[in-house]
Every structure is written in C-alpha cells, then in structure tokens.
Amino acid sequence: MAKFPCQNGEPCNRCGGCCKIRENFRMDVVDELTIKQKVYARTRVIYLYPMNRYTISLSHEEKARLERIAKERSVSISILPKKVIYDAVNDKAVVWDWFVDHDICPFLKGDNECTIYEDRPEICRMFPEIKNEQMFEIQEFVKNIPVVDLQYDVLVERARKSLECQGVLPIFCK
C-alpha cells in the first residue's frame, strides 16, 4: 500500500497534489522498452503509450461515468487505454483499464475543489492510501494466454490494430 507524498496519515489538506495526476519524469527509451517487455512476459499486458503519459487508472464503469459527467457539464476529457491484455495467438486485445490523459484532473476547479466528489473514481476514494490488487486478477485472466516471441513494438502495433478493429480506438496516429 502506498501513500500520497503530501500525506503523513493526516486528512486531506486540499493541496490538490493528488489531482495533479501526471508524473513529471522521463525514462530512458531503452530502459522503458526493457520494463515493458518484462511486464508483457509476466502479464501479457501491453502499454500503448510512453510510461510518463499514464495517470490514474479507471475501470470501464468509471470511464463511462466520467465521460457522461464531462459531456453533461461540457468538460473536455480524454480517457485512453492504460493496460491492454494482448493474446497474440488469437490476435485479440482487451482493455483492462483506462487512464485520464490530462496533467491535472479536468474536474478540479477553483480552490482545489473536486467537482465530482460524490462520483469520483475508486482510486480517489482510497486517498490517502492506494491499494493495487489488480495483478492477481490479471494473472488469473491471462493464465491461458501464451507469451509470444515477437518484438515489443510489433506486439504494440498488433494490439492497436485489434483495438481499432473492435472500435475501441480510432485509427491510431502518432
């Protein structure tokens, strides 16, 4: 279990730090590729974007809810696939979870006020402690999906095309 860096077990001090959701780091391209390849080998998870782009994870239901709320309130929001499980043998990609593609949560307004507090995602509800139990669920989901010996960029391209064919992603443009 991890704690947010602004907390020492105290209640929220409304600093907005947890709502500034994109980490500001750069990883060496070779190191990132090595990490992604190892993650794929263990979990069959493919990451379509650079690691420094990822933010908080959303479930399918949370994605749909936030998109609905954003539309109702005329808030611009971009939510993209985060973890994609790819079965290369059957050429089938499944989005496991999603991420909010913003530096700062688009629902943070004014004096660090959450405008969707009652409808906020689970990860926000867990504040200040974060639990990640997804890996057990992912391991169970992929137990019959074999690892294939393809270059990671080939796996990513094939996973993208699978998602495009399913209508999950628009035609991917870099």
Would you write up a description of this structure?
The chain has 174 residues and is of the alpha+beta class. The chain has one domain (2-163). Helix content is 32%, strand content 15%. The chain contains 5 helices and 10 strands. It has helices at 29-43, 60-73, 122-125, 134-141, 152-165, and strands spanning 2-3, 45-46, 57-58, 79-81, 84-87, 92-95, 98-100, 108-109, 113-114, 129-130. The strands form 4 sheets. Strands 2-5-6 form a 3-stranded antiparallel sheet. It has a 3-stranded antiparallel sheet with strand order 3-7-4. A two-stranded antiparallel ribbon has the order 1-10. It is globular and about 50 Å long.
